[in-house]
Design goal:
The protein is of the alpha+beta class. The chain contains 5 helices and 4 strands; from the N terminus they run H-H-H-H-E-E-E-E-H. Strands 1-2-3-4 form a 4-stranded antiparallel β-sheet. A hairpin with a 4-residue loop joins strand 1 and strand 2. Helix 4 runs parallel beside helix 5.
Length: 175
């Protein structure tokens, strides 16, 4: 039933377009077909409608210092994951938290900490998210490692996205 309706609608649309084109072709040649009203253009050269202008973003971007503070707090091996829970999008689960604490303690014992972060190129990439380039340097890194990290505005507070938090822990642990 739907296919018959679709075919009927398509045929009707084709007839309207075809009839309009016939009228246009006829008026261009100066010959009007018998029985059909002559179609004339109402305006030539009128501008086409454009997409509506998008409203300016109301999201205020975080500062490099804000994002660096989040990263410094997350990479601190002396602070439990429970204290860091509000720094990661959606929080830090118990299993993830214990793993993160373990990885940070191992990195500390191996002389890989403290880390330094340089945040740059902060750009909005969604209604509540920004991407930034973060250069990570530390005692055992021969050169700074730059990672693209995503931050999320949750209830007015900037937090590190969950996938970026995992990437950061792996970078610290050398995985």
């Amino acid at each position: 039933m739907k296919s018959m309706k679709s075919i009927a609608i398509s045929a009707a649309a084709l007839a309207v377009v075809g009839g309009g084109a016939t009228g246009l072709a006829s008026s261009a040649s100066g010959i009007a077909p018998a029985g059909l009203p002559q179609v004339q253009l109402a305006s030539v050269g009128a501008p086409l409608p454009q997409d509506p202008q998008q409203p300016a973003s109301t999201l205020s971007l975080p500062t490099p210092d804000q994002l660096t503070g989040i990263l410094n707090n997350l990479s601190n091996p002396g602070v439990s994951y429970r204290t860091k829970d509000g720094l990661v999008e959606g929080g830090i689960g118990s299993g993830e938290g214990h793993e993160m604490d373990h990885e940070l303690r191992v990195a500390y014992r191996n002389g890989q900490l403290p880390l330094s972060f340089v945040v740059s190129n902060i750009q909005q990439n969604g209604p509540t998210t920004v991407m930034s380039d973060v250069a990570v340097s530390g005692p055992k890194l021969s050169a700074p490692v730059t990672k693209p990290l995503m931050f999320v505005n949750q209830n007015g507070n900037w937090v590190l996205s969950s996938p970026s938090a995992t990437m950061l822990v792996q970078a610290v642990a050398g995985n």
